[in-house]
Amino acid sequence: MSQRDQQGKVILSVRNLAVEYRTSSGPVKAAQEVSFDLRAGEALALIGESGSGKSTLGLAILRLLPKTAQIPAGTITYFARDGREVNVLGLRPEELRRFRWEECAMVFQSALNALNPVLRVWDQMLDTVRAHRGRVNTNELRTRAGELLRMVQLDPERVLPSYPHELSGGMRQRVAIAMSLLLDPQLIILDEPTTALDILTQRTIIDVMLNLRDQLGFAMIFISHDLSIAAELADRVATMYAGEVVELGQVHDIFYQPKHPYTVGLLNAVPPIAGDLVALRSIPGSPPSLLNPPSGCKFHPRCPYATEECSSTEPELIPVGHEHTAACIHSDQVHFERTVLEAAP
Ligand code: ATP
Ligand code: MG
Hints:
It is a single chain. This protein is 30% helix and 25% strand. By secondary structure, the protein is of the alpha/beta class. The strands form three sheets. The chain has an eight-stranded mixed β-sheet with strand order 6-7-8-3-9-10-13-12, with helices on both faces. The chain has a four-stranded antiparallel β-sheet with strand order 2-1-4-5, covered by helices on one side. Helix 8 (199-216) links the parallel strand 7 and strand 8 (219-223). The longest helix is centred in the middle third of the chain and has 18 residues, at 199-216. Bound molecules: adenosine-5'-triphosphate and magnesium ion (MG).
């Protein structure tokens, strides 16, 4: 079945996932009670302040967490194209190696770290495919590499013989994206792939991602601080706060009718993508320590809607609309309206 025929089928199911980092001051609870499903071909954006656990979640799905991390609770189930159900947390090393490129690939913020500095791009591609498929038909690989590089708007003749340092940051990032797709994974996880780049190069990467998704139909989890990028690329958005998913919904609902006060805070802190000049407001206070998080709702010390109950009751994600959930007991009062300073001409 092609990726497009499988649209709508769940390919990843995360349930009650918790991740802790061991530190000299005690366990840092970087993810807690995280649950979500991802469907074939779907793009989910993870948004939230620095330290909210976005990368931790991405790394956990690929079992790339450092040794100091442990997963005290939860499951990650992946459904392969052939219907195989994979318990990701139970994969043995050899199975994990296959899972990582052939089923699920990751692109990091700095492509320089992902590319081997002493290998030409072509040799890296050859090595990657050889490690997974054994013998490689170099003609076929050359064709596939050429196609992928052209899809990311690079000239294969120029790029394949180059070493990473001979390419610009934006070119390297696009090489990393093309490499992640070499073995045709069903899911790619991109962790801030545009953050280190200038605004025009960011634009190119976004266009490239939109175009690639359209042509290849993979699912993606897109981690970003930048709400406008999330709005453009995602079908659904998950807002993370202090290691928890506090709101999850379709992109339009999250941006126009957010139901968690923290999502409202994030939206008020950035200018709208188009239209009027509006007042920007930062969220008072700072994210809590994950060594010793606040009781009840972790956002309550910063929340304008907080009541007594919020400091004692941990809110669960509850339905607040169609395919829209929020972890707030006051979600029915939450209202998002920007203060317009100057109307757009
Ligand atoms: P950013 O937007 O800055 O990339 P993030 O949302 O990706 O942030 P994570 O990197 O997942 O956040 O971090 C979540 C929490 O876990 C933070 O409090 C962070 O300090 C902590 N953390 C991350 N990596 C480690 C580690 N190796 N050891 C201890 N604590 C860690
Ligand atoms: Mg991160």
